[in-house]
């Protein structure tokens, strides 16, 4: 750098605008003269001395006002507001894109963080002091919750539970609850199926729930020596049964045919101890004998415990570690008294999850899911803010000349900053308002259209802190990048600023903008790769061949009166199947104990004399296999004649047959010992092909199909194939069952494929949200690339004009623009691929049927991005081609 | 007396330079004349102050390559300024005339 050049550079930064041109001229002239007379060193010394002295002098001396100061008043503020609002009319495109960018980012953040809040952070409704209580779960050696269980020695027997309550002195209240729906009616009306739960111990005391009316069930109410036929109902159920606000306490309900007395009503919103609970009625644990038909011994038995979760409220001075240690000691004491299950009980580890927010089973998954979503949203927010910052810098550069003129005409730095502040405030307010609208739109879409099919969204609420965070971020970005240049206004030199007003900018800012565009592309590509992998994974989950064609198959889930198999209920079942077959548009019907994808009832099966293996039992009618298009292990359709499908025969799934006999071929005709409800030997008459469940798409089902001899239990799943399955047909099928069972609740009906949606709701939720966010980020990145390229073209008009004048062709100009865009895209894409690879590693456990580094996904995403980049650079390239050298150079 | 010491020097320089007075020239004139280095910033502050009092007037001159193409701001002393300078110089001369010999003797003794 030559002497005068550095002197100019320093003077630009140290000297005030007023008189700078003349002072600098003198400094340069003196430097020149002294350099010739006394050498460079002396000249440099004197120049620095004079420059610093001049700068210090300027700071001391008051700046002469260039025009008399006007008194600041309300009118001047209004004038600034009016001047700022005129900006909307002058730059509608800029305003629209900025507001849209910020509002989409803020809206997405509000929606996703609100969802996270709803799913994992908010307390369960109706619980008092939710952070003073929590869930106590017992984890086995595999880390699986083992509070409840059947068949195997899992769970805590009721008597163990009583001992725990007594000996765990650090716990003020201990309660448990189970899940068994009941059919409820009032005054001879048709019963309705109500989600209900049994409670034991100090359940309501642990939750701190207070009754809206009457009382809640206390520990004294739910003991085995108390009257079990008392219930507490939810306020919503009270309104349905007795009218809004109707008197319910003291009234009698018929629950599963048994009269029970309502002793209390819980507050609105309370649905039980878990976020996903839908309970509307609670009854004492011993009432399972009368209401469900369990034997009293079974309720006390270790092998069929009905306590799903334990809820506790520790003493105020107890720490979680101390509580867990004490509970472990109690379990150890219990284990010493049980020889059979001693090792199992000793292997249980108590774990206390404080806070009634999300149950222990869902908590870990929720935290992982929400961490992923929060990470994705943060990336989108970064892209959004970068985009908004880019737009603001772009605009500031365009307005640099105008600002300098205002400054030169006497406007103070404060005045310029105030006008800019109003502009930014208007922008920020518009963006914030639009952001809330966007979030509200997402919220309504979730609620009304259930696009994500996650049932908890019925309680999706906005949280003020989240809204404030998102809005502060978007508003802060606007203000920061809008105001900073205004504060620098005092440093503007008039001449350079006016020269730059056509779109030129400093090299450092151009570099900043270049990197921001490349960063946006990188982050968007990262998200896009994740979105593509998750979407394809979800598609793979829904495309899993379960071995059963459930499309167009309807399902009616019916409950029969009583809990025993009777000839009357068997006849009723056959009558309903005949009625279904007679419906127009129905091509076949069959029945099973459980839905097509199971799981059925678990039991054991094995060769005589060998150790049995665990298997899933499904009882079905003869037409079941034809209706669902089940094929045998060779791929031929299975046809079972009704007369051959009788007690003592069975079909195995290929997986179970291979497991037991080594080869499906060898299984046919063999005898098998089974143990489900009782022990029975069956002859294998067929082997199906591979069967899978939507909930475990990577594992073959070990299933055994046995004949359906009428409803063994009090329920059945009636299946029918519609051609096609219309809503009308579904309602007609429901009517058939409702007519046949006038004293039972109206049956639940739907498509047999509905369980696919339920099982994969989480994958679908994550896939769709990440896909939506990545689409949003890609759009932003395209806008960013467009902005940077447009600005670069605008700043290089003169250069382009000279090139065209010198004979540069269209190819040369296109190449020039392409090189500029290409450098941004290449850096962004390479970084994005690295980011995508990292993101894929995080997602690895959630991917099904697709590798984290699937080449086609990466390649496809890059190609898609290339198309987006070409579209983003299209308009700037056209503008570059349209440069007229005569006009551009003539204007100078 | 209403003139500051730098104002006196600047007015003297303006009087010597005539219509060729501008920042750098004035600074050189003062430095060569009395050996005092004056920064351009201080110089313009004084010149603007005296312009406000009506002692000097300014106009924009031409540019030179040594100045990086920047124009010069030219100054000229006005009659009021000239009167002030003259009054100040007369006073100083009158005071000095009676003591100049003594001052020379004193300087020799010290030397």
Task: Tell me the total number of β-strands of chain B.
Answer: 3
Distinct helical segment count of chain A: 29
Largest sheet of chain B: 3 strands, antiparallel
Q: Number of DSSP strands of chain A? A: 26
Instruction: Please identify the structural class of chain B as seen in this structure.
Output: alpha+beta
What is the approximate shape of chain A?
elongated
Low-confidence stretches of chain A: 65-69, 148-153, 451-458
Instruction: Report the span from N to C terminus of chain B.
Output: 32 Å
Shape of chain B: globular
Secondary structure elements and pairings:
The complex is a heterodimer of chains A (892) and B (111).
Chain A: H1 3-14, H2 20-38, H3 40-60, H4 74-90, H5 92-121, E1 134-139, E2 149-150, H6 158-167, E3 171-177, E4 182-185, E5 192-194, E6 196-201, H7 203-207, E7 213-214, E8 230-234, H8 235-242, E9 252-255, E10 258-266, E11 281-284, H9 288-291, H10 296-300, E12 304-305, E13 309-314, H11 320-337, H12 342-346, E14 349-354, H13 360-398, H14 400-408, H15 413-449, H16 464-487, H17 494-500, H18 507-542, E15 553-559, H19 567-582, E16 586-592, E17 601-606, E18 613-620, H20 624-627, E19 649-652, H21 654-661, H22 664-667, E20 671-675, E21 679-687, E22 692-693, E23 696-700, E24 703-707, E25 715-722, H23 727-740, E26 748-751, H24 754-759, H25 761-795, H26 797-805, H27 810-843, H28 855-881, H29 885-891
Parallel strand pairs in A: 6-11, 8-10, 18-24, 19-21
Antiparallel strand pairs in A: 1-13, 1-14, 2-12, 3-6, 3-13, 4-5, 4-9, 7-10, 8-11, 9-10, 15-25, 15-26, 16-25, 17-18, 17-20, 19-24, 20-21, 22-23
Chain B: H1 5-17, E1 21-22, H2 23-34, H3 40-53, E2 56-63, E3 71-77, H4 79-97, H5 100-110
Antiparallel strand pairs in B: 1-3, 2-3
Helix pairs in contact in B: 1-2, 1-4
């Amino acid at each position: 750098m030559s002497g005068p050049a550095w002197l100019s550079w320093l003077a630009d930064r140290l000297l005030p605008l007023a008189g700078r041109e003349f002072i600098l001229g003198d400094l340069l002239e003196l430097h020149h003269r002294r350099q010739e007379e006394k050498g460079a060193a002396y000249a440099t010394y004197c120049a620095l001395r004079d420059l610093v002295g001049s700068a210090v002098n300027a700071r001391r001396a008051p700046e002469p006002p260039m025009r008399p100061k006007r008194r600041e008043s309300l009118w001047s503020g209004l004038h600034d507001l009016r001047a700022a609002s005129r900006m909307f009319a002058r730059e509608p495109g800029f305003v629209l894109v900025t507001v849209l960018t910020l509002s989409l980012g803020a809206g997405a953040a509000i929606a996703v963080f609100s969802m996270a809040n709803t799913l994992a952070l908010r307390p369960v409704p109706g619980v008092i002091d939710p952070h003073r209580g929590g869930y106590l779960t017992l984890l086995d050696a595999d880390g699986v919750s083992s509070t409840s269980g059947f068949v195997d020695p899992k769970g805590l027997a009721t008597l163990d539970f009583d001992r725990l309550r007594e000996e765990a002195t650090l716990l003020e209240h201990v309660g448990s609850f189970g899940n068994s729906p009941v059919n409820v009616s009032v005054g001879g009306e048709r019963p309705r199926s109500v989600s209900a739960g049994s409670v034991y111990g100090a359940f309501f005391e642990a939750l701190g729930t207070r009754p809206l009316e009457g009382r809640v069930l206390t520990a004294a109410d739910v003991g085995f020596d108390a009257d079990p036929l008392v219930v507490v109902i939810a306020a919503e159920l009270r309104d349905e049964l007795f009218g809004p606000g109707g008197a319910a306490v003291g009234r009698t309900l018929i629950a599963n045919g048994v009269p029970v007395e309502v002793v209390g009503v819980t507050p609105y919103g309370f649905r039980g101890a878990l976020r996903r609970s839908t309970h509307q009625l609670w009854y004492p644990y011993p009432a399972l004998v009368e209401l469900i038909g369990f034997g009293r011994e079974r309720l006390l038995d270790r092998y069929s415990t009905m306590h799903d979760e334990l809820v506790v409220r520790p003493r105020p001075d107890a720490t979680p570690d101390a509580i867990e240690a004490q509970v472990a000691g109690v379990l150890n004491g219990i284990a010493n008294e049980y020889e059979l299950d001693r090792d199992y009980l000793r292997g249980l580890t108590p774990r206390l999850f404080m806070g009634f927010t999300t149950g222990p089973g869902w908590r870990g998954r929720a935290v992982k899911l929400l961490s992923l979503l929060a990470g994705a949203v943060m990336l989108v927010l970064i892209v959004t803010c970068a985009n908004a910052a880019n737009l603001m810098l772009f605009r500031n550069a365009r307005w640099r000349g105008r600002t300098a003129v205002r400054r030169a005409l006497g406007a103070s730095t404060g005045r310029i900053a105030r006008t800019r502040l109003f502009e930014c405030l208007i922008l920020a307010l518009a963006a914030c308002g639009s952001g809330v609208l966007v979030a509200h739109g997402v919220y309504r879409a979730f609620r009304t259209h259930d696009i994500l099919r996650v049932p908890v969204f019925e309680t999706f609420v906005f949280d003020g802190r989240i809204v404030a965070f998102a809005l502060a971020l978007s508003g802060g970005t606007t203000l920061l990048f809008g105001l900073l240049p205004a504060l620098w206004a005092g440093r503007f030199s008039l001449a350079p600023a006016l020269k730059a007003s056509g779109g030129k900018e400093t090299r450092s800012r151009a570099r900043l903008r270049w990197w921001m565009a490349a960063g946006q592309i990188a982050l968007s590509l990262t998200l896009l790769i994740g979105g593509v992998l998750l979407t394809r994974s979800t598609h793979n989950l829904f495309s899993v061949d379960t071995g059963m064609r459930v499309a167009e198959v309807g399902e009616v889930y019916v409950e029969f009166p009583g809990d025993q198999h009777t000839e009357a209920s068997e006849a009723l079942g056959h009558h309903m199947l005949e009625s279904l077959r007679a419906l127009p548009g129905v091509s076949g019907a069959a029945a099973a104990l459980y839905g097509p994808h199971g799981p059925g009832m678990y039991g054991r099966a094995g060769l005589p004399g060998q150790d049995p293996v665990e298997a899933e039992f499904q009882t079905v009618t003869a037409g079941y296999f034809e209706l669902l298009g089940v094929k045998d292990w060779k791929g031929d359709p299975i046809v079972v004649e009704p007369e051959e499908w009788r007690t003592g025969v069975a079909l195995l799934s290929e997986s179970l047959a291979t497991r037991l006999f080594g080869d499906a071929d060898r299984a046919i005709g063999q005898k098998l010992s089974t143990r489900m409800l009782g022990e029975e030997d069956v002859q294998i008459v067929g082997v199906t092909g591979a069967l899978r469940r939507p909930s475990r798409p990577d594992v073959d089902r070990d299933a055994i199909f046995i004949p359906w001899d009428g409803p063994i239990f009090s329920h059945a799943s009636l299946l029918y194939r519609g051609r096609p399955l219309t809503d009308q047909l579904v309602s007609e099928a429901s009517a058939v069952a409702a007519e046949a069972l006038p004293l039972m609740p109206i049956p639940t009906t739907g498509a047999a494929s509905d369980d696919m949606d339920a099982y994969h709701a989480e994958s679908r939720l994550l896939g769709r949200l990440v896909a939506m966010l990545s689409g949003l980020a890609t759009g932003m990145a395209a806008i960013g690339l467009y902005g940077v390229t447009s600005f670069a073209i605008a700043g290089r008009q003169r250069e382009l004009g000279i090139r065209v004048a010198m004979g540069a062709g269209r190819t040369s100009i296109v190449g020039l623009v392409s090189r500029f865009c290409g450098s941004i895209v290449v850096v962004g894409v390479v970084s994005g691929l690295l980011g995508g690879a990292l993101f894929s590693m995080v997602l690895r456990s959630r991917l099904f049927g697709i590798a984290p580094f699937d080449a086609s996904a990466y390649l496809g995403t890059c190609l898609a991005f290339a198309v987006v980049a070409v579209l983003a650079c299209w308009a700037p390239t056209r503008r570059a081609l349209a440069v007229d050298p005569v006009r551009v150079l003539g204007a100078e | 007396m209403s003139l500051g010491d730098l104002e006196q020097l600047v007015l003297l320089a303006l009087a010597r330079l005539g219509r060729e007075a501008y920042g750098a020239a004035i600074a050189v004139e003062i430095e060569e004349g009395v050996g005092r280095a004056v920064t351009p910033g201080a110089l313009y502050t004084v010149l603007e102050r005296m312009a406000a009092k009506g002692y000097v007037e300014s106009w924009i001159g031409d540019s030179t390559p040594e100045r990086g193409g920047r124009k010069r701001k030219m100054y000229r002393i006005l009659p009021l300024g000239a009167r002030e300078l003259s009054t100040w110089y007369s006073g100083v001369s009158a005071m000095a005339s009676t003591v100049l010999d003594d001052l020379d003797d004193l300087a020799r003794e010290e030397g």
